[in-house]
Amino acid sequence: MQGSSPSSGAAHLSANDLACRRGDRVLFRNLNFALAPGEALHVTGANGSGKTTLIRAMAGLLSPFAGSVASEGTIGLLDERISLDPDLPLGKALAFWEQMDGCNDPSGALKALGLQALLDVPVRYLSTGQRKRAAMASLLNRAVPIWLLDEPLSGLDAAAIAQVTALIQLHIGGGGIALIASHQTLAIDGLQTLAIEEFAA
Amino acid sequence: MIATLLKRDLAKFFPFAGSGAALPLIFFLAVAMLYPFAVGPDANLLGRTGGGVVWIAALLAAILPLDGLVARDIEHGVFDQLKLRGVAEEMSMAVRLLAHWLSFGPPLILATFPAAALLQLEVETLHLLLLGLLAGTPGLAAIGLIIAALTASLRAGAALSGLLLIPLALPILIFGAGALARSDDATLGFVAAISLLLVAIAPFAAGAAIRAAREG
């Protein structure tokens, strides 16, 4: 990531006068926030207002049009693209990322998201909500301090929304950071809100 | 980490492992089988032209795997997740190049034996073909990877990549097939040199293409 905080050690994530564009259009400018351990920020806005672009810029996958992003600590990303091989059974598709992350015991994450019964099902047969839960399990297995979540609740049923919300709560309760882009309401204590349209260019 | 990535890529692309991964090999053999039907069983003619046909078959077979080589993983966000785990695009492309060549070069070289039998090639020609393909297939794989990465975000990418590969592969074809007529070590050395250059460039070119596709 570009830049790093002088106080090393504790995780943090911040945007400084950030502006991002998509194609020729600048979506937002002069956007600032800073998140310390245990803090979560909910980014709200209409479709196309730049929520996903902000998440991808914070992940370092897009270069900002102006301003900068800074982070300390490993970043985990959950977005629409679940990066699980559609031809493989879910268990094997998840196992690849477990090996990449050196995760030896994925059972906790599978249980928390109710995926044990689906391990033999090829990823392409999973429903939208099941895929989302699988991607969430993959994120949990990484045990990283910073979570970037792009529409984490879309496609989930009521029970799964409660599960994922509880997991986010647990993550920030344990000193993690979460940046959540969602047009849904999130029942999380201590959640800060940022309306991206206030920064529209 | 890199070994895990290579294992995954090989499992996807090695013949008879993934879906459709054996197609280039079957296509290559099918061309060698069809050619005697088309020109007749004249051993003299087959022996004289067969080597060139094997080269053309190899070049066309190199087009087939390009479709799913990079585009699908971009679409599924695999390179994004790898980047977040500290695996740069250049590294994931270098691994992909190795996996692509391993699943396409050596099987093709092995398939040259039955192809040579079908085309009634002489031992000397077979020898030059094997050496030529060994020197040339890494270059074909490298061109293929660059093209697959460049065209990944285009809608007609798969069709376009086939058209793009042909002119770029021409030097390898000219020197590789040329070695059959001249039976000259220097010509094969030239094929190897072109291949080495392409292999050295490919991870950087393909990596840059993936980053550019993200910004688009």
Overview of the structural elements:
The complex is a heterodimer of chains A (201) and B (216). Chain A is α/β, with parallel strands linked by helices and 201 residues long. Chain A is 28% helix and 26% strand. Chain A is built from five helices and eight strands. The longest helix of chain A is centred in the last third of the chain and has 16 residues, at 158-173. Residues 1-8 of chain A have low confidence and may be disordered. With 216 residues, chain B is mainly alpha-helical. The mean pLDDT of chain B is 91. Chain B contains eleven helices and no strands. In chain B, helix 3 (43-61) runs antiparallel to helix 7. Chain A binds chain B through residues 56, 59-63, 74-77, 79-87, 96-97, 99-101, and chain B through 1, 4-5, 8, 12, 18-19, 75-78, 80-85, 214-215.
What are the key terms here?
heterodimer, A: 201 residues, alpha/beta, Rossmann fold, three-stranded antiparallel sheet, 5 helices, 8 strands, 26% strand, disordered N terminus, B: 216 residues, mainly alpha, 11 helices
Quick overview of this protein structure:
The complex is a heterodimer of chains A (201) and B (216). Chain A is an alpha/beta fold. Chain A is built from five helices and eight strands, in the order E-E-E-H-E-E-H-H-H-E-H-E-E.
